[in-house]
Amino acid sequence: MASKALAVIVGVGPGTGASIARRFAQSYNVVVLARNPDNYSPVVQEITSNGGQAVGISTDVSNSNSVNAAFDQIEKQFPGSPLAAAIFNTGGGAVRKPFLELTEDDFSNALNSQAKGGFNFAKRALPLLLKAKDSSAHPPTLIFTGATASVRGSANFAAFAATKFALRALAQSLAREFGPQGIHVSHAIIDGVIDIPRTKAWVFEHEDAKLSPDAIADSYWHLHTQPRTTFAFELDLRPYVEKW
Amino acid sequence: MASKALAVIVGVGPGTGASIARRFAQSYNVVVLARNPDNYSPVVQEITSNGGQAVGISTDVSNSNSVNAAFDQIEKQFPGSPLAAAIFNTGGGAVRKPFLELTEDDFSNALNSQAKGGFNFAKRALPLLLKAKDSSAHPPTLIFTGATASVRGSANFAAFAATKFALRALAQSLAREFGPQGIHVSHAIIDGVIDIPRTKAWVFEHEDAKLSPDAIADSYWHLHTQPRTTFAFELDLRPYVEKW
Amino acid sequence: MASKALAVIVGVGPGTGASIARRFAQSYNVVVLARNPDNYSPVVQEITSNGGQAVGISTDVSNSNSVNAAFDQIEKQFPGSPLAAAIFNTGGGAVRKPFLELTEDDFSNALNSQAKGGFNFAKRALPLLLKAKDSSAHPPTLIFTGATASVRGSANFAAFAATKFALRALAQSLAREFGPQGIHVSHAIIDGVIDIPRTKAWVFEHEDAKLSPDAIADSYWHLHTQPRTTFAFELDLRPYVEKW
Amino acid sequence: MASKALAVIVGVGPGTGASIARRFAQSYNVVVLARNPDNYSPVVQEITSNGGQAVGISTDVSNSNSVNAAFDQIEKQFPGSPLAAAIFNTGGGAVRKPFLELTEDDFSNALNSQAKGGFNFAKRALPLLLKAKDSSAHPPTLIFTGATASVRGSANFAAFAATKFALRALAQSLAREFGPQGIHVSHAIIDGVIDIPRTKAWVFEHEDAKLSPDAIADSYWHLHTQPRTTFAFELDLRPYVEKW
């Protein structure tokens, strides 16, 4: 279990996270993190039963102790395995409320799940990515999943936009600091509804109006395979009929 | 003390905050908030001795209890006084460190001082601004002070950029929600070194290379006096020789 | 007629241009340029009959010969008069068509009226603004009027967005080159319908839903009076009920 | 020669254009356009001698007659061949001069080569892309090559930034109009020096400091293969050590 490279994905439910895990499992061992094992267990089983290697660890990304415990376990379970890719894909904090109804807890929880969560994750992932630089087929990669709210503070989205803007700032800052050290840091703006079990019932006027989680995963894999001469920092992804 | 309108400014030290207080004190009673009374006392005395009305309240903007206590005191001390302007100008969170040296406390403190502070302040200011709509000479105004880090995540500025991006998201979201209700929400990007006591010794190649706090205050006053037909949301201010 | 400073405004019809002319005529002699004398004559008469000094010159800003002739006449008519402000406010090129119906002439005319027009105007204005540096009460100022289309390429607006994006690029480039030489270059994004004779009949759901040309002029004057320590480059102006 | 799909690339010299042609020639017949046959002949020969199909047509993209003649020839030579991809990659207009030394011709040439050229190219490409919708393996794709100057008006780059901003506006407008019709319109911001014969002698402090044209081509191919559920509009590409 030692030498094959590793991808760690946080925020793995039945949607984008699972697609990313599947895609990266074609080349790497994968570790998937989520609060609730029910979220990651199906994809772990699926990858394993297809002959891949996947491990799930129950993790609360907004809590540094929990993130640290997860990474301690990863390092114990995959000693010497270089970290090729770390992907931050949590969905927390997406509260929508008129501002005067937004509670202090709503706002703090939003900040903690994305901005603080991204910080906790990057703190543990970056040293491993740096260590993997010479043994990785592609430049070690750290990708953050953004949203429309990463670049637009809409009415009733004060909390979500605040934490998504903050996460984008973190991604930019890390790209500028760790890019020159050979780490590929990227930020993907997912602008639209993703086609996942939770949104299955949402009907749109046009067909194909929801983002494909597999296609998002393909774009993340493309980012990962870019050589250091030609890093993309930011990518916006949306369905062809999306208004923007 | 009842009917004259009120301006509340948080983040008042000897620099921009004091200039804003002085400028708005030409027309309003002013309340200045800062953690340390040493920061606001000189400008309170100056305004008072010039015949104006100014009150300082020691406040920790990152703490909602402290902000609530301050606003409770304001409402008691100025009953019936419409809130014409609320200005969020705190300087906290400006830590500069390589990311791997940044502690969890650094990051949390940064998020708390600007993003959370802005939230706490807006939660109490907005109901008062809404109430003042019909009695105010100019549209009630909420201004947030931004920085270069509000729009650029530079290397070694992960924490400060995260919280400044978040504050800008908050400002945008509030502008879109409360603009149509007649409240003028603005965000000013201060891009450069401000000419304050702390930066007096900083020497630049060219003269006039530092932002004037009085000129910043004049721009804030201009924003405040715009009619609702013609609101500016964002303004970037920098010295003529600043690289950008 | 020699020593009083001068403001030159191009694109003067009965709307924003006239308001800017009126506002700057409170302090300066003004020269107003437009293709059709019918557009500028009323405001010239109004300023003159109020004791101000105003001159109109028929000019096609997309034609460098015409712009050169206008500036030659200005220099002859106001010898020694420092150029305090030059304002580019033309409205040309605002064609709205499905792309496949857009003709080559539509596209070229749009590029010529704004991008090329801005170039022609700046080429003649900047040497005069530089010469005025030491004799002007405020830093000599060059302001470009932008629109929603300056920052957003909407469907059916390919030509107008192309030329407005180009004009903004020109403004940014000039701000970075001439700012350090003491010239204040600004760009105002006018995002909404302006309340002018042509739009009088347009009815909106809310009152005050159109931008006030006088308020726009006040913001331009504010930009002009900023000291070089504290230049704003960009300002977005919109009615309080505008969606953005 | 009828049914295999087609890619048309304009701006093909020994750098990015040739790499794009090579990459798309793995799946399509390619037509390469450039002013000077010396620029496209080597890649045409290379592709042909490797068993691919490539045709070069001498074209001045700033001249609509020349673009029309090229497309007329394409339609004659490849009747019934669906246009899968059209790529606008011209390098013209990159003049760098202090503004007051910039001539009217410099500015007009810059506007013509990119903004006008992009217009001429899109006018002929879009009807063919629309027609190819049902016969193309991937959504028909129109990609524009941008540069740092597409999003930043630097000092001494007024002409190049104006035309690159305009081209980006065109791309945005077309993406919003033709995306819902199933055409994938993208804009790539190439931020840095590309590793081509002309820049071979440019030495940088770090190795791999220049963009790889082949890696750019891989990203363009990735854009092309995205399904319509998940279109990227914009991508920024730069070397890992690039300052931004």
Automatic annotation (TrEMBL), chains A, B, C, D:
Offer one Pfam family short name for this entry: adh_short
Q: Which InterPro entries match?
A: NAD(P)-bd_dom_sf, SDR_fam
Q: Which SUPFAM superfamilies match?
A: NAD(P)-binding Rossmann-fold domains
Task: Give the organism, scientific name.
Answer: Penicillium frequentans
Q: What is this protein called?
A: Oxidoreductase short chain dehydrogenase/reductase family
